[in-house]
């Protein structure tokens, strides 16, 4: 299956973002986590849609991969500010996904 | 609910694209419809994800709305070449969605 | 387009659930809203996927429409306990969607 | 991250289904592949939505995992009838996903 490295990175990123967004709801400092939850959800939605698109032979997916790269970088920046394990792991998944997007685009 | 006009246009566009992509499979000239099916599916995925994002207060959705506008225009161009009722109706839904994206962006 | 009433009800329900889940994050009593946010997100995901499926001629969608009906009822029960406008409107969209699912199934 | 084995199996299954549905469009015997394309697309949509749900702490996901198990079995049955490499690999991904669903449910 073509693009499998990028598809795996996108799905892994989306899973971590969805998990982090939900786990933030159980933290004591939940009001501090609102920006993290929103960025997680946005990142999950864009990465999940792009993973579905990459499985197809449609010719022009660069624009969506650029959207993924940008939101992954933003989401990593937001998540890495928090010490929660789910935030740190999410930031790591986002960074790896942003790199996989860069490799695809270059 | 904010952005409800654009969300409705995106969901209507995605529904028509999913329906058109599937209905093309039952046409006799299916080999002629492959480009239409692929563009429909791409458009449906991007519009559906963006509809989900617009319901959130995440600050930066312009990039995704631009992606929607662009794929809606392309999908309308591809669909309107075919006389099938589902293609003509899909082209119409795509044009209306592209306009709603433009209104949002301007 | 076939099943358009149910598809519209599912997309309307998903949009309200996504909006309510996000708007809850801006409420002062956010800890009280966690159950509402989780149920909203689950309902949005199931209804959005089912709206995409109904556009296709795949023969067996009853199981997914039953899942929608069940989560819409649960989500309406959770949302209607809260006085926030987004919760009340979401409960209403969920009830209407549950009814549209019942009509489809009967 | 909890449920990571099932989430990975669901995302892998969805990616193969999306890829197979698209690759079928480039086959010479495309009319023979219509049932495969439709089942692929249905399976991809249900598995992708369920992967997103499993990342959350929402209590009741058994119904959706049962839906995944059932459509994965059906999709494997349809795909394995075809000799195309994408169909055989998709059938394998569907069987593994159905097993991961069974393990989760038992």
Describe the overall structure.
The structure is a homotetramer of 106-residue chains. Chain A has 106 residues and is mainly α. The first copy, chain A, has a single domain (4-105), classed as Substrate Binding Domain Of Dnak, Chain:A, Domain 2. Chain A is 76% helix and 0% strand. Chain A has four helices and no strands. Chain A has helices at residues 4-24, 34-54, 62-79, 85-105. Chains B and D meet through helix 2 of B and helix 2 of D.
List the topology elements:
The structure is a homotetramer of 106-residue chains.
Chain A: H1 4-24, H2 34-54, H3 62-79, H4 85-105
Helix pairs in contact in A: 1-2, 1-4, 2-3, 3-4
Query: Largest chain-chain contact?
Result: A-D, 24 and 24 residues
* β-strand amount of chain A: under 5%
Sheet of most strands of chain A? none
Extended strand count of chain A = 0
CATH topology of chain A: Substrate Binding Domain Of Dnak, Chain:A, Domain 2
- How many individual domains of chain A? 1
Q: How many angstroms separate the termini of chain A?
A: 20 Å
- Overall shape of chain A: it is elongated
Structural class of chain A: mainly alpha
* Number of helices in the DSSP assignment of chain A: 4
- What is the CATH architecture descriptor of chain A? Up-down Bundle
Q: List SSEs of chain A in N-to-C order.
A: HHHH
CATH class of chain A: Mainly Alpha
Q: Extract low-pLDDT stretches of chain A.
A: none
Helix content of chain A: over 70%
Multimeric status of the protein: homotetramer
**Overall mean confidence score, pLDDT of chain A:** 95
Calculate Rg of chain A over CA atoms.
Answer: 14 Å
